[in-house]
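Residues determine shape. We examine one folded chain.
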Amino acid sequence: MKKVLFGVSAATLALLYGLLVLILLIIFEITGVPLVTALIVSAAVLLIQFLISPFLTDLTQRWFYRTQFGGEVPMYLREFIEQVCRDNNMKYPKMGYIDDGAPNAFTYGHTKNNARIVLTRGIFELLSEDEVKAVVGHELGHAVHYDMLLMTVAELVPMVLYAIARALTESLRSTAGSSSDSDDSKSAAAQAALAAITYAVYIISQYIVLWFSRTREYLADEFSVRSTRDPEALSRALIQIGFGLSTRADTAKKAEKRRSMSVSSTNALGIFDTRASKSLVVSCYVNGELDKTHIKNAMKWELWNTWAKWYELNSTHPLISKRLQAIDKLAPQYGKPEFVHFDLKKPESFLDDFFREILISIAPWFFFLAAVAAGGLLYYNNTMGLLWIAAVLLILSAVLALFKYRFTHPNKEYHEANVAGLLAEPKVSGIRSIPCELKGLIIGRGDPGCVFSEDFVLQDETGIMFLDYNQPLFILNKIFAITRARENLDRNAVIRGWYRRAPIPYVEIYTMEVGGKTKKIYTYGLGKILRWIYLILAVAALAAMFILTR
């Protein structure tokens, strides 16, 4: 394992720094300008950021997340951490606790000997002891592998490349038009090409860093399995945190118990009847045994839908389904069977849906830019025909914008659903959505513990779901987060909106009923109105042209 770890890290860093050296050599050859200042500043900024970031993050956690450091952890967890620390010659990490029901865990610091591990209340409420240890084992893996340091070293390359591209671009701007000498023109052209190449390499390096980060996640998973010798515990934890799908027989009972503190008043108002909610239960347990069908259904989107591959390419973390499959490959080493064998047959290709949704997404902008281009040509060629073309293109853009909005926000017939049922839908993305109505308990904020987080996490009998609260103005969201969001926590709610995956499963809220009051999100209505205004103005412009040219 250590050889694999060293090989992957060395190869990736060698590739990144090889690209950087290649660009620097080209720069020295073409321009003769070493750009030392830009390199020194970039490296210095990243070094300072690395040195002070844990202490700044400590302050951020205390001030904005109400994180409590230094508290006692459960004995089973403390003994596990102490054992891992002894085995790996590291200091006991600084433990933080966030009083929020949404499950989350993360680590930060310089090295394995000053690592911080932060856990939310939701980790302890939703997971079993073995699953908690598996999650903490993953975070300890990041510390033991020096991931904080390695990621900082890797991220230096795109940062420096971006600084070089910006410096070259600014240099071109400052010298533009200052000389008409042919040699100077050739030098400027070479510099422009170099700036473009550098920026392209910067983009490539960004994706290499993302791939490197995903590799570190696999290795942290492997460390967790090696430390606990229980691959199934980590798989169950990932399913609950990553998918939001319940894998414990007592989850519904625990949720019901928590609801009992506030449910009587809401039942009287007719908002949410917990007895009726029993019909929504699609638990991962059937007759006391774990039913893998719901887990396989939740994996379908990640393993079949093309959007999942695109999102993963742009993510620091691998898809949960791929992590589960990687963990299952480790299971035989510990005398364990596969946790879940994904054997469902893909019913169709999802590639056509992917391209169709991309087309729907970009078509309004394409025709808008075409209209702008036609208007620009009109400046050089005073032809009325171009004006007519621009007006027609604007109308097409407006019509397509309305169609796109209708596609992304289907009819408001919100059908009752639950988390497990929504997760089983493979044909969904950030563009294609499913109207739904969810009933459950709001257990925490979308960004657990953050006082500025206006989003929520809802739990029903089958799992948890992220809720996207988004009013038209950013400031309205933050005012709500600071002044009103907290009063919705640990209360029953009825959420109506659109279910999406990008790649995290979430519901875009249209209305939320909590405590007898209905809160409406006006972003959908405003978006529709603005698109109709756009269409009306485009048609009006065409009509005015028709009248004026008669």
